[in-house]
Amino acid sequence: MERSRLMFGLAFTILLTIVTTPSHCKYHSKTVPVDRLKEKVTQLHFYLFDILSGTKPSAVEIARPNVTTDKSATPFGSLYAFDDHLREGPETNSSIVGNAKGLYLSASQDPANFTIVMYADFGFTTGKFKGSSFGVFSRNPVAESPEREVAVVGGRGKFRLARGFARVKTHYFNATNGDAILEYKATIIHH
Ligand SMILES: *[C@@H]1O[C@H](CO)[C@@H](O)[C@H](O)[C@H]1NC(C)=O
Ligand SMILES: *[C@@H]1O[C@H](CO)[C@@H](O)[C@H](O)[C@H]1NC(C)=O
Ligand SMILES: *[C@@H]1O[C@H](CO)[C@@H](O)[C@H](O)[C@H]1NC(C)=O
Ligand SMILES: *[C@@H]1O[C@H](CO)[C@@H](O)[C@H](O)[C@H]1NC(C)=O
Predict the structure, then answer these.
(1) Is a pLDDT exceeding 80 seen at residue 139?
(2) Which CATH number belongs to the domain containing residue 150 in this structure?
(3) Cα separation, 146 vs 86, whole angstroms
C-alpha cells in the first residue's frame, strides 16, 4: 500500500514537471545551425593618420609609468587615446572615409622591440559601410617587421559578427614627433 502510494506520488510529480516546464524559456530564441546565415567577405583598403604633433593631435598620451630606466619616447606602460582619420589614400588631402577610435598601449618591456596592443573601433562615415564599424583587439608588433597583422574580432551594423584580420604597413613615420600614416588592408568575414 505504502509502495503504490509512493509510486503514484512520483508519477504525479513527473507529470507536473512536464506540464509546468515551458517548451522554451523566454530569454533566448530557438537555436538553429549557423550555416543558415549567409556569410560574406569584404576587403577594405585605407590609410590611418595617427598625428601626435600640432595643436590638434589625433592621438594623446593619457598615462605613463613613473620609471626612469626606459628612456624611449613611448616607454613600456604608456597609454594613448586616439581618434584618427581614415583616408582613401596616403595624401593629407585625400578623402576621409571614417575614423578609428580607441586606445593603444606600449606593451613590450624591451624598448628595442616596440609593440603596442590596440583596443580600437574602426568606423566608416561614407559609402556602403557608413555607420558600420569593426573592432580590433590585438597586438601590433610595430618594430618586428614592416608589415604586421592585427586581429579583427567583431563589428557593428553591416559588420555584425565580423571576424578577420588586417595587414598594417607603415607608410610614413616621423621619429621626432611620432606622427605616422599607416596603410590598412583588411579582410573581414561578416553577415
Ligand atoms: C616618480 O617617482 C619618483 C621616485 O620614486 C618620486 O620621487 C616622484 O614623486 C614620482 N613622481 C610622480 C609624479 O609620481
Ligand atoms: C591633393 O593635392 C595635390 C597637390 O596639392 C593635388 O594634385 C591633388 O589633386 C589633391 N587631391 C585631392 C583628392 O584633392
Ligand atoms: C628584439 O629586438 C632585437 C633588435 O631588433 C632583436 O634582435 C631581438 O630578436 C628581438 N627580440 C624578440 C624577443 O623579438
Ligand atoms: C618630423 O617632425 C619634426 C618635428 O615636428 C619636423 O621638424 C620634421 O620636418 C618632420 N620630418 C618630416 C620628414 O616630416
Answers:
(1) yes
(2) 2.40.480.10
(3) 20
Ligand 4 within 6 A of CB of 69: no
Residue 88 lies in a domain: yes
Count of domains in the chain? 1
Q: Which has the closest alpha carbon to 45: 119, 104, 102, 122?
A: 122
25-60 burial by CB neighbour count: b if 16+ within 10 A, else e?
A: eeeeeeeeeeeeeeeeebebebbbbbbbeeeebbbe
20 within a domain of the structure (yes/no) = no
Host domain of residue 54: 38-190
Backbone angles phi, psi at 170, to 5 degrees: -75, 115
Residue 142 C-alpha to ligand 3 middle, in angstroms? 12
Which of 46, 91, 92, 97 gets mutated to test ligand 2 (max ligand atoms within 8 A of its CB)?
91
Query: For residue 70, what pLDDT band results from cuts at 50, 70 and 90?
Result: confident
pTM of the model: 0.82
Q: Write the pLDDT tens digit of every residue in 25-63.
A: 788 888 888 877 788 999 999 999 999 999 999 999 999
**pLDDT (tens digit per residue) in 89-125:** 999 999 999 999 999 999 999 988 999 999 999 999 9
Q: Is 18 exposed, middle or buried (0-12, 13-18, 19+ CB in 10 A)?
A: exposed
Q: How far, in Å, is the centroid of ligand 3 from the Cα of 112? A: 7
